[in-house]
Amino acid sequence: MGFEEFKKNPGNITKNLRRLNRKVMADSHENLLKRQKEISMNRIVFSILIVFSLIMGAHAAQSPQIPLPGSAIPQFMEPLPTLGIPPWNGTIATVFGNQPLTIRMCEFDANILPAGTIIPGQKPKTKVWGYLVDPVGNSTCAQLINLYKNPLTGAIDTYIGPVIVNQRVLNPPGLSTDITWINDLGSALTTEVLAYKYSTDQTLHWADPFRLNCPMTLMGMYPVFGDPCSQNYQGPVPAVTHLHGGEVPPEIDGGPDSWFTSDGMYFGSKYYTFGKDLGISGNFSLYKYPNVQEAAPLWFHDHTLGATRLNVYMGLAGAYYIHDPSQNLPPNLQPLNEVVPLVIQDRMFDTTGQLFFPADSAGGIPGV
Fold first, then answer.
1. Which one, of 250, 257, 275, lies nearest residue 209 by Cα?
2. Nearest CA to 134 among 81, 86, 96, 182?
3. pLDDT of 94-127, one tens digit each?
4. Is the whole-model pTM more than 0.90?
5. 3 vs 12, 13, 14, 143, CA distance in Å?
6. Distance (Å, whole) CA 157 – CA 153
7. How many C-beta neighbours within 10 Å does residue 301 have?
């Protein structure tokens, strides 16, 4: 309808516009209702998937642990562990670097919680993983535990350690610290560290020794009940040690893909040990740390792909100190051997004094 017709019959145009406006509003309202129904259905489906995943997870990896309230742990009861050298002669294993060392990753009892936490007058024993210095190089974990345990409690006083004290190398190559890291952690199926046993998640991008490749297989979907991807990992424990803050060649950085299993049968794509080019491999890695960087308090810890959160939580952490004798320090500064290490870590426990990790539906709490 042209402008001339509009001038002759403006009422018809107005009626048509009103009719068109009512139709648009009706269509918009219908589309709005349709969209609301779609959103509601999506929410219902999403809720069902969440509930389903929690139920399936609970059946696939139900932890028997019950979390212990933090308020149940007595405070300010235990003295801090100190270095195992004079003047302290404490219980944190302290060794000198710039020489070959053998350090084993072992499972053992540690005294973490104070006496009276679980049973009045008794100090609980907590199953942990830790690094134990092997002074002869061919000891078993059982022999090392017997060497380091407190005869009064039957447990090792702390899982933290060892502290390795190194002297800076000013004229390379100098004396490196050659550490053979040995993985003697056994199997996820038989471990008594329940926080690890019930917290591995094979739907993540992780070390995956058995090559299930769950993230690619599932493509973001939930595994069905009984699927291997829905189960906790039950094979030999993968591990690798990373020197945090160390200025080292990339081969010995202990990156996420450098892991190796406790049975020496499975390896990450970046696995390295000194002598690998000669066909040497196993449940160990030999790293030669150059010690050429400036004086610094470093630490080492596990760095396994997709399992660092678990392995460090279970206790795999220690200290690596680089001392520079040429450093001009204030004369009144506390000498190195008198330092009291202070390590702050967040841990949860169950009602039996064992480490508790809020994964899956442990303790009836949907976890992470």
1. 257
2. 182
3. 999 999 999 999 999 999 999 999 999 999 999 9
4. no
5. 13, 10, 13, 103
6. 9
7. 17
Q: Tell me the two tokens of residue 311.
A: 């392995």
One-letter amino acid at 260 equals: F
- Separation CA 137–CA 133 (nearest Å): 9
What does the pLDDT look like over 278-331, one tens digit per residue? 999 999 999 999 999 999 999 999 999 999 999 999 999 999 999 998 988 888
Sheet with strand 317-323: strands edge to edge: 94-96, 163-167, 317-323, 296-302, 241-244
d(CA 203, CA 222): 8
Instruction: Give the length of the chain.
Output: 368
Cα separation of the two ends of the chain: 66
What gap in Å lies between CA 95 and CA 135, rounded to an integer?
10
DSSP state of 92: B
CB 322 within 8 A of CB 166: yes
Cα torsion through 173, 176, 178, 179, rounded to 10:
-140
